[in-house]
Amino acid sequence: MPTRLSRWVSSPPAIWAALIYLVAALALFGGPLFEGGNACVCRGADATIPLWGFEWFPYAIAHGLNPFWTHVIYVPKGFNVAIATVMPGAALLLAPITFTAGPLAAYNVAVIASPALAAFFAFLLCRRLTGGRFWPALLGGWLFGFSDYVLGQMIEHLHMTVVFLVPAIVHIVLRAQAGELSRRRFIALMTLALVLQISFATELFASLTVFGAVAFGVAYLTVDQRTREQLRPLLGQIVCAYALAALITSPFLYYAVQPGGLPIVPSRSENFSAALMSFIVPPRLMEVGGSTFVHTTGAFSAGIVEGGTYLGLPLLAIVALAARGAWRRPGGRALLITGLITVVCSMGSYLQLVHHTHVPLPWWPASHSPLTGLMIPARFAMFTALAVAVLAAWWLARTRRQPLAWGLALLSVAFLWPAVQRGYWKYHKPLPALFTSSRYRNVIGSHDVALIVPVGPKGYSMLWQAETGLRFEMASGYLPPPESPNPYKHDRIYPTLADGTLVPHVERAAEKFLAASHVTVAVVDLAVAPARPWLRILERLGWRPQRVGGAIVLRPAGSAQAAAWRDRSPTPRRTQA
Hints:
By secondary structure, the protein is of the alpha+beta class. It has helices at 2-10, 14-29, 31-35, 48-62, 88-93, 95-101, 103-129, 134-145, 148-154, 165-177, 183-200, 202-222, 225-248, 250-256, 268-271, 294-297, 303-306, 313-327, 330-346, 363-366, 381-398, 402-415, 440-443, 461-467, 494-499, 506-516, 532-540, 560-563; strands spanning 39-40, 69-70, 79-80, 350-352, 356-360, 427-428, 449-453, 473-474, 521-524, 543-548, 551-556. It folds into two domains: 2-35 and 102-422, no CATH class; 433-575, no CATH class. The strands form four sheets. It has a five-stranded mixed sheet with strand order 8-7-9-11-10, with helices on one face. A two-stranded antiparallel ribbon has the order 1-6.
């Protein structure tokens, strides 16, 4: 009995790791999930893009619409949603939650599950590479799933937070290389993983492909002859899986890669690249030291969301201690070289210590290339985090200096502990009662075209429309990133639409825009500052305002709908017929 108990303590079932990670994610970030209402595990308008996608894809499929081109926003032009971060795969997987509790609840579930899933699949990979050692693998999973990269992307970019497929794919390849998977089963699993990754984030799929090829090449050059013979047939099987994944996702890829979608912007490498000091100096997200070095971290170009490269001194000490032993092993050598490559590439086109220098780096040619030029270098920190997590777990399982090792391990976790109380992962989105009840039906009909201002990243029109189940069209929205062809970007009224900046002859420009976009109703929430000028503009154009459900709804004077306005008692959205 004692032997069985000691064996269970040293190597518990994998399900315990999953539960530990899930409980930790809920304890750290789960507040908004239980509060409900307009509470979100996020900040910033970028979060409303996948949130809107959670509503759009089930809606499009249920109504027999093209899911990759929408006319419910940016009326009358419409928009190619495949170039946006709308996450069609996640939308379909979370459709039951979206239908029963709304897109904001589905978004919160996805964000909270992301670090737990990433940690668990990294745990499985680490457990394999440590010979089945549970506790070192548990540490490795935590260091990846709750890394600075994941914590930063959780704030605003769900599509870059769902990274569990990266360690899962590495695990699948290692199992196939060891002969544990048949050729058919490996291709099937690899195809499934690639299809899911494409449907979650095409940018992450592209960077996974690039650095996966680098890792495969480095491994082939550094391992022994016997391992090379095992790797050769895998290459053909991986290519086959890629071909099948491309075939399965071809309708989506057709729209995603159309010319004129996302332009190559080399400045991404300068504006969103890692500073050398960012690996050492704790960002504001960290509990330990996060508020101490604000002046230094504020100078890093990538910011707190994209600058997820921080490792901390204890974890860097583990890397230094593990490097010597790992270098003596072919697999460890490949891991170290690949990790170093991801570090260098994450620093972008030019070296940045704290501020930018003029010293070019190897990524400079890639920032001008068709595929890699679309990537944000700082996001390669995810691959670095995985390499470091695996290396730390491997060292912890093999070192004889256990007290020192576990002391450093616990310090590594402490140095990466998120500063939850600073509010980066909790925000109450502006959500007027007009859109959380049936009131909108009294003032916005299914044939209306609504202008909800402001348009773009300073507004929340995507959330408001999604909360109604997409039951009206909008001559506004926020799907494309700043570099993409926003349908209104070159319109003279765009500064007023986006941030309330008044342009010359603003009423004339607004009237022209309203007519061209077939706008029949406008919604202004005075709590959102850039929307306020529109109340005065529309009133001067003869539109009549009425306060309904915490917002101001305006229609042209004399319209039939304006005469029929009334303010009824609200009915919860998800219980209405």
